[in-house]
Amino acid sequence: MRLRHSKSIVRPIIPLFAACLAMLPIGVARADFAVEEATIEQIQAAYLKGTTTAREVTAAYLARIEAYDQQGPMLNAIITVNEQALAQADALDAQLRKTGKLSGPLHGIPFVAKDNIDSGDLPTSGGSASLANFQPERDATSIARMRKAGGILIAKASLAEFANGGFDSINSRSPGYIRNPYNTAYASGGSSGGTGVAMAANFAVLGLGTDTGISVRAPASINSVVGLRVSHGLVSLDGVMPLNVFWDTVGPMARTVRDTAILLEAIAGPDARDPISQKSKGHVPKSYTAGLKPGSLKGKRLGVLRQIVPADNSDPRVVALMDRAIEDLRKAGAEIVDPFAMPELPELTQGWTGFTRLRDDFDGYLAKHPNAPYKSFKDIVASKQYLAPRFETAFTHQANYQYKADEDPTTPAKQKRSEEIRQAFLKAFDAARLDAIVYPQFNFPPKKNGDTYTPLGRDQNLYSSVTGFPALVVPMGFVAPGLPMGLQFFGRPWSEATLFEIGYGYEQATHHRVPPPTTPPLADSFASKFIGTWKLIAIADRDPGTGVQTPAERGAADGQLVYAPNGRLSVQIVRTGRDKIPVGSADGFSSYFGRWELLVAEGCMVHHQDGNLNQSRIGEAGKRYYGFDAQGHLSLTTPPSKRPDGRELSSVFVWERIP
């Protein structure tokens, strides 16, 4: 397949991009900074410190796309790679060197955007072969705002064709299913499946998706990332291929709640090009991150809507995850109303059918793009340049619907029912004094790609779409075989800041997010220096004032340390001389497990302890300051602590990699 645009590289010829990366200076993708799971705050701190550059970070993410999207696990999440991304990163680096200041809140942060959102320098296909060569003349407002804030668009993400999907994503522009990086036999969720997978697989830091009925929340849940369906009108729909403008939204996606909130701050608010966005006037707070701090869950009242997770129509593993999540929320300070019931809800939602607007809304989009190869959605359907076996029935019905969207006689009754559902939820929120309603994103685990029979349980996704109220999905854990599930927090209109506080508190209390096993750090990445099994070879005490090291007073020890590619951690240390300790005693033995987090800007590895032989230390996040010697030995130094004799000393553990 040929090059689609002079400033872009289209996904089928990504191997050509590998050659471009290979010609970069050797340090570009090999700087001592780990992009895997890196946050905005960590990356920008490293920029200011000089630990890395926007070029290095961008190149590292591009290398990951090259390694994993059409090779290895073949995730198939990317349609177009931006050939100009490195040049844009260079410009940001030059600006930082000149001014000493970041250009904006997203300075040097690579992001991907769903390929139904216009980009002025990359094609926008909607996932359809019919628009494979379509080049918009300018960026959509959401992308323009991200770039103005300093973001770097590195790729356009794949999707279900024209955003018609929920449990999976497949299209005619990039043949084949988008694959789940946690288990590639399974679906990615849709329709923003490419964005969700790109976030999970560390192809970028941030992602833009769209959500009409389910399309940000589904891939967020299924890929163990954070996704927000915003209040309808909070983010401009300018330059977005529509599905149903009554429900359409642009939604932020990221690996953490804080990064998702930072992204929303960059794109939220009224836009003169989108009349619907005028609803957001007076509803955009100064900050979506101000409340993201310890204790953010304290006093929040959450209603558990168990009636939509019935035992006879839910997987027991999902119910178990939900029950654990509710208990975790309670322990973190939330006030739980369980069960919280809305007996009128089944009658209100029974027999609900959506609005038939795709044809006319899409025609309105095409009318704003005179250079588009087709002038109407009906022409697109007539061309057969789409995935006909999957979408022909739906697209033909939409194209030939007997009524114009604004003249459809069924619309008033549907709008009336929508308002009744909105009012029912508002009354329920008020009556129970709730900050949010909580339930699983799905009642069942993800499906395998191509499976059209296994249920998911989707009624709960209807509520946010019909009401226009926001809903935040945060990782809830995993079910066998290693499949992620998400927890949804459904809020009042314009309550995104409150939902972020709730989601942040839950995220920090549980840390369910772990990177997928199919996309580990690349062999030449900094994080790969830690991954593996290590044998303890020495322990020393260090005086933090003088730096002098002496043999550890606690004596010699043996031990093993494991840093797994999926972010899991295991440590066991056994002091010598334990033969003198009574049988059954744990004295002189240290053992814990959990997850590891590499903070390059601080020069430390964080050991998050999910379990510990010493129960008082469960939940600790212990910092270990790292170093490597000429022989490749890894030293991990603890922060200073007071010893019985009153001295402040650090412990230094020296490890040797086991082949």
Automatic annotation (TrEMBL):
<dbReference type="Pfam" id="PF01425">
    <property type="entry name" value="Amidase"/>
</dbReference>
<feature type="domain" description="Amidase">
    <location>
        <begin position="56"/>
        <end position="499"/>
    </location>
</feature>
<keyword id="KW-0732">Signal</keyword>
<feature type="domain" description="Lipocalin-like">
    <location>
        <begin position="531"/>
        <end position="658"/>
    </location>
</feature>
<feature type="signal peptide">
    <location>
        <begin position="1"/>
        <end position="31"/>
    </location>
</feature>
<protein>
    <recommendedName>
        <fullName>Amidase domain-containing protein</fullName>
    </recommendedName>
</protein>
<dbReference type="InterPro" id="IPR024311">
    <property type="entry name" value="Lipocalin-like"/>
</dbReference>
<dbReference type="InterPro" id="IPR020556">
    <property type="entry name" value="Amidase_CS"/>
</dbReference>
<dbReference type="InterPro" id="IPR036928">
    <property type="entry name" value="AS_sf"/>
</dbReference>
<dbReference type="InterPro" id="IPR023631">
    <property type="entry name" value="Amidase_dom"/>
</dbReference>
<dbReference type="Pfam" id="PF13924">
    <property type="entry name" value="Lipocalin_5"/>
</dbReference>
